[in-house]
Amino acid sequence: MNILIIYAHPNPESFNAAICDAVEKEFKSKDFQVRKRDLYQMKFNPILTEDDYSSFYQDKVPADIQAEQSELIWANIFVFVFPTWWAGMPAILKGYFDRVFTNGFAFRYSDEGPEGLLKEKQALIFQTTGQPEKSLKPPQLTMAMQASFDVGIMNFCGIETLAHKFIYSVPYVDEETRKIMLNEVKEVVEMIGKQK
Predict the structure, then answer these.
(1) Of the CATH numbers 3.40.50.360, 3.30.413.10, 3.40.50.720, 1.10.1520.10, which one belongs to the domain with range 2-193?
(2) CB 3.0-4.6 Å disulfide test: which of 106, 113, 128, 191 passes with 157?
(3) Is Oxidoreductase among the key words of this record (predicted)?
């Protein structure tokens, strides 16, 4: 089974990087094929221009987008690792969806409405936040972010979400708590690994 990690954090020393490394090592230890797209390291251009937009409708997909779509075609499971900024994902990741998950590749419209074209794919999401769980759950922000990602993007494209794990209060917890958090990440991967 092929795993594609799509990672969006600018700091290579961040806890997101530790999560990404843990996910990669855990899948590799189970003999999965793993590739990683580090969007900041790649300097991925997240801006959808008019030229891009027009090209998509003329079946002229830019070379950088073709490369990313090839990676997505290769993978069975997408693993997204990213922080929460302004109650959502970083702009670079949103731009990745804008430019790569294109009409005709990830979805299409018909008389019956939209149809997801990535029905064979599955997703695993690890989303960190600096806020405590008690700050996000009562106003339903966690639920809103999860629905936006899992339903608004994944399900829209036909992708089955296997798990969406929120990791809270990341900048404010001690090292021991971070170890516990990373073990929880590994447990999620272990659960997914049993599908192989």
Answers:
(1) 3.40.50.360
(2) 106
(3) yes
- Asked if residue 60 lies in contact with residue 105, where contact means CB atoms within 8 angstroms, the answer is no
- Find out whether 10 and 55 touch, Cβ atoms under 8 Å: no
Query: What does the block give as tokens for 186?
Result: 């590994």
User: Which string of DSSP letters, residue by residue, matches 2-56?
Assistant: EEEEEE--S-TTSHHHHHHHHHHHHHHHTT-EEEEEETTTTT------HHHHHHH
On average, the pLDDT of the chain sits at 92
Q: Which helix (H) or strand (E) element contains residue 77?
A: strand 77-83
What angle do the packed helices 175-193 and 15-29 form, to 10 degrees? 40
- Its pTM stands at 0.94
Query: Can you name the residues that pair with 125 across neighbouring β-strands?
Result: 80, 164
User: Cα dist. 15→29, 80, 82 in Å?
Assistant: 21, 14, 10
- Name residue 38's beta-bridge partners: 7
Task: Report pLDDT for 192.
Answer: 82
Residue 39 zone, left/alpha/beta (φ > 0; ψ -120 to 50; rest): alpha
